[in-house]
């Protein structure tokens, strides 16, 4: 099996370049994940840089571009990938080293939508109750693991990562806007009403296609726009 | 940049799109149903085409075409041009649309001197 990995060391290289590694097919089983293969690559060359942590699709740290599409390497079976496997860092953000990118802008956009519940002051005598129907509305928007696969597959985010909130941040914004317990509904919508923050989304659905958790940020953004139309 | 709305532009782009989608087929239908004969001058034919009711609809279409064009290219400018110079290009584009409006109004007044 051949893997072509984009390499870049800012201390040595002026531009990224591709390096091909060969892995013995005997080491590959049917359920081997891409991350396992990257560990085998690292046995050959310990300098190959990539992030990983939980190794089961929960932490979202091993997002990378594989054969042109963003994936989490730990939950991508190698058997689903066509050969040769071409691995690049998630596009649109600065590369720190090899497959490791600087996600500061991504996190900044997430932080800017105030991704936390803003509700009435905590009263120890009373719970913030929610009906099962109200809770069901949150399904599909709270499961985001912030891997960045969606935002880094979005051309609008590539052009203006400092201005356009991006699918992940807008999905998070939507999650709190539709939460029946949140009392900052209108303030949140007003914050998002700018030509650059929400309305750069053209619904090309790259984000939905790339999401390793099967979420639909594009639909959430469309719903966000509909809520803005109704409530602002 | 800060004065530009996201939601208002979004609404007007859609309203104008729906109106223009309805208007243009109506415009072609109206043209088809305005008889042309060799003896009729073009300006007379235009005057028979643009009845007061149709003129009002056409004027609204013109306003909405300008609105649609403003939002559409405004979005392209915000998307693709370096943000340091976005304000300059938006102002220039706004000026261009104003010139187009003045030009079209002059044309209308020239074609319909008696009615305007």
From TrEMBL, chain A:
<keyword id="KW-0479">Metal-binding</keyword>
<dbReference type="InterPro" id="IPR036010">
    <property type="entry name" value="2Fe-2S_ferredoxin-like_sf"/>
</dbReference>
<dbReference type="Pfam" id="PF13534">
    <property type="entry name" value="Fer4_17"/>
</dbReference>
<keyword id="KW-0560">Oxidoreductase</keyword>
<dbReference type="InterPro" id="IPR004489">
    <property type="entry name" value="Succ_DH/fum_Rdtase_Fe-S"/>
</dbReference>
<feature type="domain" description="4Fe-4S ferredoxin-type">
    <location>
        <begin position="134"/>
        <end position="164"/>
    </location>
</feature>
<dbReference type="InterPro" id="IPR017900">
    <property type="entry name" value="4Fe4S_Fe_S_CS"/>
</dbReference>
<dbReference type="InterPro" id="IPR012675">
    <property type="entry name" value="Beta-grasp_dom_sf"/>
</dbReference>
<dbReference type="InterPro" id="IPR025192">
    <property type="entry name" value="Succ_DH/fum_Rdtase_N"/>
</dbReference>
<comment type="similarity">
    <text>Belongs to the succinate dehydrogenase/fumarate reductase iron-sulfur protein family.</text>
</comment>
<keyword id="KW-0004">4Fe-4S</keyword>
<keyword id="KW-0001">2Fe-2S</keyword>
<keyword id="KW-0003">3Fe-4S</keyword>
<keyword id="KW-0816">Tricarboxylic acid cycle</keyword>
<dbReference type="InterPro" id="IPR050573">
    <property type="entry name" value="SDH/FRD_Iron-Sulfur"/>
</dbReference>
<dbReference type="Pfam" id="PF13085">
    <property type="entry name" value="Fer2_3"/>
</dbReference>
<dbReference type="InterPro" id="IPR009051">
    <property type="entry name" value="Helical_ferredxn"/>
</dbReference>
<keyword id="KW-0408">Iron</keyword>
<keyword id="KW-0411">Iron-sulfur</keyword>
<dbReference type="InterPro" id="IPR017896">
    <property type="entry name" value="4Fe4S_Fe-S-bd"/>
</dbReference>
<protein>
    <recommendedName>
        <fullName>succinate dehydrogenase</fullName>
        <ecNumber>1.3.5.1</ecNumber>
    </recommendedName>
</protein>
UniProtKB/TrEMBL annotation, chain B:
<dbReference type="InterPro" id="IPR014312">
    <property type="entry name" value="Succ_DH_anchor"/>
</dbReference>
<keyword id="KW-1133">Transmembrane helix</keyword>
<dbReference type="InterPro" id="IPR000701">
    <property type="entry name" value="SuccDH_FuR_B_TM-su"/>
</dbReference>
<keyword id="KW-0479">Metal-binding</keyword>
<comment type="similarity">
    <text>Belongs to the cytochrome b560 family.</text>
</comment>
<keyword id="KW-0349">Heme</keyword>
<comment type="function">
    <text>Membrane-anchoring subunit of succinate dehydrogenase (SDH).</text>
</comment>
<feature type="transmembrane region" description="Helical">
    <location>
        <begin position="49"/>
        <end position="71"/>
    </location>
</feature>
<keyword id="KW-0472">Membrane</keyword>
<keyword id="KW-0813">Transport</keyword>
<keyword id="KW-0249">Electron transport</keyword>
<keyword id="KW-0816">Tricarboxylic acid cycle</keyword>
<dbReference type="Pfam" id="PF01127">
    <property type="entry name" value="Sdh_cyt"/>
</dbReference>
<protein>
    <recommendedName>
        <fullName>Succinate dehydrogenase cytochrome b556 subunit</fullName>
    </recommendedName>
</protein>
<comment type="pathway">
    <text>Carbohydrate metabolism; tricarboxylic acid cycle.</text>
</comment>
<feature type="transmembrane region" description="Helical">
    <location>
        <begin position="92"/>
        <end position="112"/>
    </location>
</feature>
<keyword id="KW-0812">Transmembrane</keyword>
<feature type="transmembrane region" description="Helical">
    <location>
        <begin position="12"/>
        <end position="29"/>
    </location>
</feature>
<comment type="subunit">
    <text>Part of an enzyme complex containing four subunits: a flavoprotein, an iron-sulfur protein, plus two membrane-anchoring proteins, SdhC and SdhD. The complex can form homotrimers.</text>
</comment>
<dbReference type="InterPro" id="IPR014314">
    <property type="entry name" value="Succ_DH_cytb556"/>
</dbReference>
<keyword id="KW-0408">Iron</keyword>
<dbReference type="InterPro" id="IPR034804">
    <property type="entry name" value="SQR/QFR_C/D"/>
</dbReference>
